[in-house]
């Protein structure tokens, strides 16, 4: 990449990193911002292991490493971006509080980050959100509001609340400060294995890929970075093919963490400018990766977290004779749901050569794809059998909440004032 231009920070003030971003015309986030985010995250987010996956290496004919963000606080990498975003807010904005819409890992990341700053946090979740994730989010002290049956409805409602109450909205991926936080994953990968040939990253809206690729490209320019999307939610792939952002009418994949209908505006620009390549994996390939991680590496991983490895195992990216790192982005999978995905040991044929179709596999007998676009971008569409009826308050706090988590009485609830205003 050509050297980036710089200009002096104006004497008038403002955040120096934001001035630098304005001066750099070819990226929404810089390596300097990612390094600054890493310093902020010290003592908050774990520097997760980059572990050699020796049991899986015969399947890929290369040296395979796993970046284990499933071992991160809250069970996914999302705490990195959420904390960095909140840390950069002015004190007055922090006192007013933050808000986000999510039914997954982002909700828990924002709630945890807000708790570390001891600031108010509101999370709007669709009524179809899995009960375990509702409980997990509330266990970090967030006010959880159930609204609508889809993510899109919850998102629109959260935006209205943010405006009405003066709250800061924390976007899951399309925010430079969030991207910088996620980019710390890339910093750690390069530090832990400086001579990698390839880094493979799961992609939903593109925040993780944008951050990781920015860091890796700056520190190890010879290392290739490839994104992986679920075939049933390949909005980013379609957008790159078209040369413009595409919004899908429907998404359908078990990997709810990357089931996003459209890439972000910022993330699309970053990925396109960096010239990154993407591939897709089927749900069957994701299930195989989940199973092999559990059987051979003893890691419990969610669908989105297994997507990068799925691409490597299926021969969608060239791994033979190379040093490859796959980002395992999260491990928050419901055990009941896991039992419906894995009904028999995973077969492990040799991977197909790069550019060819993956080898045929037997479909697990009890396999069922789990997320449709009725849940919106990246959220689960399964209504738990023990979930309350629409509008019913949650009054119980899970007894198995994370150690030290402060749970607020009545944290599970719908807000009657805002409910009425929503029509």
UniProtKB/TrEMBL annotation:
Metabolic or biological pathway: Amino-acid degradation; L-threonine degradation via propanoate pathway; propanoate from L-threonine: step 1/4
Domain Tryptophan synthase beta chain-like PALP intervals: 46-330
InterPro entries for the chain: Ser/Thr_Dehydratase (IPR050147), Ser/Thr_deHydtase_PyrdxlP-BS (IPR000634), Thr_deHydtase_catblc (IPR005789), TrpB-like_PALP (IPR001926), TrpB-like_PALP_sf (IPR036052)
This enzyme's EC code(s): 4.3.1.19
Cofactor(s) listed: pyridoxal 5'-phosphate
Family matches, as Gene3D superfamilies: 3.40.50.1100
CDD domains in UniProt: Thr-dehyd (cd01562)
Reactions this protein catalyses: L-threonine = 2-oxobutanoate + NH4(+)
Region named Disordered: 348-423
GO biological process, one term: L-threonine catabolic process
Keywords, in A-Z order: Allosteric enzyme, Lyase, Pyridoxal phosphate
A GO MF label: pyridoxal phosphate binding
Pfam families with a match to the protein in the record: PALP (PF00291)
Biased composition (Low complexity): 368-381
EC main group: lyase
PANTHER family found in the cross-reference section: L-THREONINE DEHYDRATASE CATABOLIC TDCB, THREONINE DEHYDRATASE, MITOCHONDRIAL-RELATED
Family designation: Belongs to the serine/threonine dehydratase family.
Oligomeric and partner information: In the native structure, TdcB is in a dimeric form, whereas in the TdcB-AMP complex, it exists in a tetrameric form (dimer of dimers).
Known function: Catalyzes the anaerobic formation of alpha-ketobutyrate and ammonia from threonine in a two-step reaction. The first step involved a dehydration of threonine and a production of enamine intermediates (aminocrotonate), which tautomerizes to its imine form (iminobutyrate). Both intermediates are unstable and short-lived. The second step is the nonenzymatic hydrolysis of the enamine/imine intermediates to form 2-ketobutyrate and free ammonia. In the low water environment of the cell, the second step is accelerated by RidA.
This protein's name: L-threonine dehydratase catabolic TdcB
């Amino acid at each position: 990449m050509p050297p980036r231009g710089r200009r002096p920070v104006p004497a008038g003030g403002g955040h120096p990193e934001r001035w630098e971003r304005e001066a750099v015309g070819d990226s929404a986030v810089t390596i300097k911002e990612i390094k600054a985010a890493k310093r902020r995250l010290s003592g908050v987010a774990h520097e997760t292991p980059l572990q050699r996956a020796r049991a899986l290496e015969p399947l890929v004919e290369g040296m395979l490493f796993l970046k284990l963000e499933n071992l991160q606080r809250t069970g996914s990498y999302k705490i990195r971006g959420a904390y960095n975003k909140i840390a950069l807010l002015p004190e007055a904005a922090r006192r007013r509080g933050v808000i986000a819409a999510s039914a997954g890992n982002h909700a828990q990341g924002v709630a945890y980050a807000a708790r570390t700053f001891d600031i108010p946090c509101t999370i709007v979740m669709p009524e179809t959100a899995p009960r375990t994730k509702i409980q997990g989010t509330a266990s970090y002290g967030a006010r959880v509001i159930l609204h609508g049956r889809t993510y899109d409805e919850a998102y629109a409602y959260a935006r209205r609340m943010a405006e009405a109450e003066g709250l800061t909205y924390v976007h899951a991926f399309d925010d430079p400060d969030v991207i910088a936080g996620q980019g710390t994953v890339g910093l750690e990968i390069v530090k832990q294995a400086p001579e990698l040939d390839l880094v493979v990253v799961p992609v939903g809206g593109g925040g993780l890929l944008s951050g990781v690729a920015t860091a890796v490209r700056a520190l190890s320019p010879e290392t290739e970075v490839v994104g992986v999307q679920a075939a049933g939610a390949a909005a980013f792939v379609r957008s790159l093919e078209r040369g413009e952002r595409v919004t899908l009418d429907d998404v359908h994949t078990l990997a709810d963490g990357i089931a996003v209908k459209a890439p972000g505006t910022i993330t699309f620009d970053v990925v396109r400018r960096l010239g990154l390549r993407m591939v897709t994996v089927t749900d069957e390939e994701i299930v195989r990766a989940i199973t092999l991680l559990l059987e051979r590496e003893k890691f419990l991983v969610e669908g989105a977290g297994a997507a990068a490895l799925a691409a490597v195992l299926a021969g969608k990216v060239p791994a033979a004779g190379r040093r490859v790192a796959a980002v395992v982005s999260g491990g928050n999978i419901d055990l009941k749901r896991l039992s419906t995905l894995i009904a028999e040991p995973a077969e492990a044929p040799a991977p197909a050569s790069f550019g060819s179709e993956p080898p045929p596999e037997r479909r697990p007998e009890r396999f069922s794809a789990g997320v449709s676009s009725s849940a919106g971008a990246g959220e689960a569409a399964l209504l738990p059998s023990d979930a309350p009826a629409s509008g019913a308050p949650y009054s119980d706090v899970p007894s198995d909440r994370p150690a030290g988590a402060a749970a607020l009485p009545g944290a599970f609830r719908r807000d009657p004032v805002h409910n009425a205003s929503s029509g």
